[in-house]
Design a protein that fits this description.
Blueprint: E1 2-8, H1 13-22, E2 29-36, H2 42-49, E3 54-56, H3 65-78, E4 83-86, H4 95-100, E5 105-109, H5 121-128, E6 132-139, E7 149-156, H6 163-186, E8 190-193, E9 196-199
Parallel strand pairs: 1-2, 1-4, 2-3, 4-5
Antiparallel strand pairs: 5-6, 6-7, 8-9
Helix pairs in contact: 1-6, 5-6
The protein binds 5-O-phosphono-beta-D-ribofuranosylamine.
Length: 214
Amino acid sequence: MLKLGVLISGRGSNLQSLIEACAQPGFPAEIAVVLSNRPDAVGLRRAAEVGLPHFVVDHKAFTSREAFERVLDARLRAHGVELVCNAGFMRILTEWFVRAWWNQSINIHPSLLPAFPGLHVHEQVLASGARVSGCTVHYVRTEMDAGPILGQAVVPVLPADTPDALAARVLKAEHRLYPNVVKLIAGGHVAIEGERITLTGPSDGDAQLFSPGL
Ligand code: GRF
């Protein structure tokens, strides 16, 4: 069982999808600890409900980013974490933390990276006129929303979309993608050499999305 440490700042719906996946018989990972930088994160309640160890590490209590991260790191290590899953964790990580968890820290972002990194993603996608959007799970690097891509899911952008409607469609895809990538890593299906990832095992065949549909 691969031990996961999930980092959150808010709602925690991706945490929820990981909780549910880990509860499935045969899923090769388990959540060892949930950490939030915000005391009011709704996701903390989700962790409490299912009896997972969960802690607040409030970044405001620290004088430097690295001092904050040293405590995060210590908590993760104390719980034997092998893979850090950033799930709506809204803190920029320093090079020190990124190096400490190199190829052991992943993030989910609600766009098809490398397009639309950063914030206000869905507004940007709609303004661009793109016909498809989606989500990406990638290894964490020092640059925000960048790093070797482990998995992506595509959804259509529809003519009547608002940022909220598109966000909801992407989020549904996130909830399927994130556990699946964790499963691939835990199952030993991900090889990384330099910055190149090779996936072995399950293949998604030749699925295609046309938007507008054919
Ligand atoms: C998700 O859209 C994720 O891609 C982004 O932040 C959001 C977190 O949502 N990084 P939740 O807290 O998991 O519900």
